[in-house]
Design brief:
Blueprint (H helix, E strand, L loop, with lengths): L34 H9 L5 E5 L3 H4 L10 E4 L7 E4 L1 H5 L8 H7 L4 E4 L2 H15 L6 E4 L3 E5 L10 H14 L1 H6 L4 E5 L2 H9 L12 H5 L11 H9 L5 H5 L3 H8 L1 H11 L16 E10 L2 H22 L1 E11 L6 E11 L2 H12 L8 E8 L2 E3 L20 H13 L6 E4 L9 E4 L25 E8 L1 E3 L2 E3 L5 E11 L7 E9 L5 E7 L6 E6 L2
Parallel strand pairs: 2-4
Antiparallel strand pairs: 1-6, 1-7, 2-3, 5-6, 8-11, 9-10, 9-11, 9-12, 13-14, 15-21, 16-17, 18-19, 19-20, 20-21
Helix pairs in contact: 12-13, 14-15, 15-16
Length: about 550
């Protein structure tokens, strides 16, 4: 979907204004008593709020229906009523608030669907995730509003105008928002409620001076505050139709008739009372899914379906500067149980292209029992992802090797051979060699090597890299071990005596031996019983 470029905000009041992004100069500072504080507030407001309102969100949250059929949205009541309708339905005579029966009588060919509140919330959360890359002070004003407090972020993004431009471009570039047609309308004001009211009215509002709020907001309809229906009906009966009419009412009389809570809203609207907002809690694990229009079983087509989900995962991770080391894809079928395709990563990763490449290798070994109806993507726990600059030299140039070469190799082998086929080895505090190690995740960072030999270069206490699963008994002649011939002792003995507490007592004397061809072995002789010789390890 293509969008015509237009300014994010336009200056002036809620009436017509030039379509150029500029801040209207503040009026000359007052010179009366107390004018010093007012002048400072005019040029440096304590807060600046951007409000985003998504018009017709309930319509945008629904997928396209029958071609040519006007679309209407129903509420969840027992006798459903119309809460939103597209232009074609309204042209056919459908009005907001009609019952479904009345709407069908006016336009029998309408496509009436229930409201999808889950999808609406997902779209607003996606918009909130984009906004969170500009400021941590983001709150969702259900069902179709979003608020950002951007005063601390202005200098970081190079000024107010540049921040607004980047925010709009980020929203327009999001594929999910663009495909659903959910294009937010933005406004800016020194108070959260003023910005939100202007956005709901679809007004062009760019206000930085709190003293201009009453004059700029006076033409907005009073309904943008979304007060209870009985309060709105009483105000309409009194002839109060705009915020200007509302602000001219006597405060004491208004509080007696409508209560202190609505009076407090008017104070928040004008910045006379603090207006704290619940901050959006950022999701700590990624999970999304897509329902397919038709069943598929080709792996390449499955990867094409997963690509937008992986792009969404990348945006999720990069906005938090984090990575994941585990990723799970679940492919749902009609009758069979879901097929699970899991990735274990050697290092924190956030790149969608890299994850798609690994999934391609993994899917090559996955057999689907039935065609796929739904694809689900679940990310593992978020971990710190070290951010590195791109190298000056290309890989292989001037001896340079890419820093992520080993993690990429491990991940590629795991995707092709399975996670259990590639592992690391860790030490265990145990004297018996067969119990002195354990399987771990591969250690990718360079580890300082502890020399096996002492300063004189002796082979004493060396350990072989290749340890046999079970010691092999060696032939012997006159008490001397043999393996294709007599073995020459190079070092030893090294006494190992341990394991009395777990009924696996071991009493051995270890030696480093060499055969006629120069191969070196790690052998031992029992200290009790028949005193047989055994081969336990081979040096590389």
């Amino acid at each position: 979907m293509r969008h015509a470029k237009k300014p994010l905000f336009e200056p002036g009041d809620v009436s017509a204004a030039p379509s150029v992004l500029r801040v209207r100069p503040a009026p000359p500072p007052p010179t009366g008593p107390g004018s010093e504080g007012q002048a400072a507030l005019a040029f440096d407001p304590r807060e600046l709020w951007i409000a985003a309102h998504v018009p017709h969100l309930s319509l945008r949250a629904l997928t396209a229906g029958a071609p040519g059929a006007p679309l209407v949205v129903l509420d969840e009541a027992r006798n459903p009523r119309i809460i939103d309708a597209d232009d074609e339905a309204q042209a056919a005579g459908v009005r907001i608030g009609m019952t479904l029966g009345a709407a069908l009588a006016a336009a029998p060919h309408i496509d009436a669907r229930p409201r999808d509140t889950g999808r609406e919330l997902a779209l607003m959360q996606r918009l909130g995730a984009i906004a969170a890359t500009f400021t941590p002070q983001v709150s969702i004003e259900a069902p179709d509003g979003l608020l950002l407090e951007i005063k601390p972020s202005i200098r970081l993004f190079g000024g107010l105008k540049e921040l607004c431009r980047q925010l709009r471009e980020a929203c327009m570039a999001d594929a999910v928002l663009a495909s659903s047609g959910a294009e937010p309308h933005f406004t800016l004001a020194p108070t959260a409620l003023a910005a939100l009211a202007a956005a709901r009215a679809g007004a062009r509002c760019f206000i930085t001076d709190p003293r201009q709020l009453p004059a700029r907001l006076k033409l907005l309809p009073a309904g943008v505050l979304r007060w209870p229906e009985d309060a709105n009906a009483r105000l309409l009966g009194m002839g109060v139709r705009t915020l200007g009419d509302l602000l001219r009412l006597p405060r004491a009389g208004f509080a007696r008739r409508f209560g202190p809570a609505l009076l407090a809203d008017l104070d928040r609207l004008q910045g006379r009372r603090p207006d704290p907002r619940r901050r959006l809690t950022r999701q700590e694990r990624f999970k999304t899914r897509v329902d397919l229009d038709h069943e598929i079983e080709n792996h390449d087509r499955i990867l094409e379906v997963l690509r937008p989900l992986l792009d969404e995962l990348e945006q999720f991770l990069r906005s938090r500067q984090r990575g994941i080391t585990a990723l799970q894809c679940r492919f749902h079928h009609y009758r069979a149980a879901p097929t699970v395709c899991a990735l274990r990563l050697a290092a924190p990763e956030a790149d969608a292209a890299r994850l798609q490449s690994l999934l391609r290798e993994k899917l090559a070994n996955v057999r689907l029992p039935e065609p796929v109806r739904r694809c689900e993507l679940r990310g593992g726990a978020l971990t710190d992802r070290p951010l590195q600059s791109q190298p000056l030299w290309s890989p292989g140039e001037r001896g340079h090797a890419p820093a992520n070469e080993m993690p990429a190799l491990v991940e590629h082998l795991r995707a092709r051979l399975g996670a259990e086929a590639v592992y690391g080895i860790g030490r265990v505090s145990e004297h018996r060699p067969e119990n002195a190690w354990r399987v771990t995740e591969p250690v990718l960072a360079p580890v300082a090597r502890t020399p096996d030999a002492d300063d004189s270069g002796s082979l004493r206490f060396r350990r072989p890299l290749w340890l046999l699963h079970a010691p092999q008994e060696l032939d012997s002649q006159r008490g001397r071990p043999r393996r294709g011939g007599a073995l020459e002792m190079l070092s030893g003995p090294e006494r190992v005596e341990s394991g009395w507490w777990d009924d696996a007592d071991a009493r051995r004397d270890y030696y480093v031996a060499c055969d006629a061809r120069g191969a070196r072995y790690w052998i031992y002789r029992e200290c009790a019983g028949a005193r047989k010789w055994f081969l336990h390890g081979i040096f590389g």
